[in-house]
Amino acid sequence: MQSFKEAFSRHLRHPSTGPVGWLVKQFLVRRNGYLEKEAARLLGIQPHDSVLEVGFGPGVGLQYALGQMGGDGRGKVHGLEMSPDMIHSATRRLHQHIASGKLQLTLGNVMELPYPDNSMDRIFHVNCYYFWDDLDQGCKELYRVLSPGGAMVCTLNSKMVKLTIEKDFNKYADKYDPDGYMTSLERTGFTGVRMEHLKDGEKSFEAIFAGKE
């Protein structure tokens, strides 16, 4: 059991192929689906926006963001992911949007975002900041690429994250503390940083908001 927990934890941080990887992918789709939907909704995406999701996993959040944007504007959704297997999975799910030019997927790391300064109007991520190697560096990069007047949203289910950590299924979430993450956001220049406790039907979750003046 301990070796399974170790493998599950490792795949949560960096999803890959294999039986445990498949299980983690299903877990992400089932457990994170509503968090992805809410993050995209809370951003207030407009048809002309450039939108970035960091750590998009199977691509559920990208799909919601594209739906919020609609197909008539000049906006575009960008996805950054460090797992080649998740890029493959999201490409299969969203190949039509990639072909139309509305979606671009990139292999990379939040520590060094491959986007120009002030290039994104909206940024979101779900259940991933606590895996970053350096919170301040990740927040600094997000701040750099967010345009003035832009917004960022992070959604998470604290209760579920704590449970997976306590049960040893999420051993690499060592930077989980939301207060520490919000402190990093403020330290790197973000304004209006706050956390709200919200609900999607019967499901409770937290949303962390931040902006750039």
Please give a quick description of this structure:
The chain is of the alpha/beta class and 213 residues long. Helices cover 43% and strands 25% of the residues.
Structure description:
It contains eight helices and seven strands. The chain is α/β, with parallel strands linked by helices and 213 residues long. The chain has one domain (2-211): Vaccinia Virus protein VP39 (Rossmann fold). A seven-stranded mixed β-sheet has the order 3-2-1-4-5-7-6. The longest helix has 24 residues, at 19-42. The model has no long low-confidence stretch (mean pLDDT 89).
Summary keywords:
single chain; 213 residues; alpha/beta; Rossmann fold; seven-stranded mixed sheet; 8 helices; 7 strands; 43% helix
Query: What share of residues are in beta strands?
Result: 15-25%
H/E topology pattern: HHEHEHHEEHEHHEE
Taken from the alpha-carbon principal axes, the silhouette is globular
Number of strands: 7
Name the CATH superfamily classification.
Answer: Vaccinia Virus protein VP39
Q: What is the end-to-end distance?
A: 49 Å
Main sheet?
A: 7 strands, mixed
- What does the average pLDDT come to? 89
Determine and state the CATH class. Answer: Alpha Beta
Count, helices = 8
Low-confidence stretches: none
Largest sheet, spatial ordering of strands: 3-2-1-4-5-7-6
CATH topology: Rossmann fold
Number of domains: 1
Overall SS class: alpha/beta
Radius of gyration from CA coordinates: 16 Å
Helix proportion range? 40-55%
What CATH architecture would you give? 3-Layer(aba) Sandwich
EC number: 2.1.1.103
GO molecular function: phosphoethanolamine N-methyltransferase activity
Catalytic activity: N-methylethanolamine phosphate + S-adenosyl-L-methionine = N,N-dimethylethanolamine phosphate + S-adenosyl-L-homocysteine + H(+); N,N-dimethylethanolamine phosphate + S-adenosyl-L-methionine = phosphocholine + S-adenosyl-L-homocysteine + H(+)
Domain Methyltransferase type: 52-154
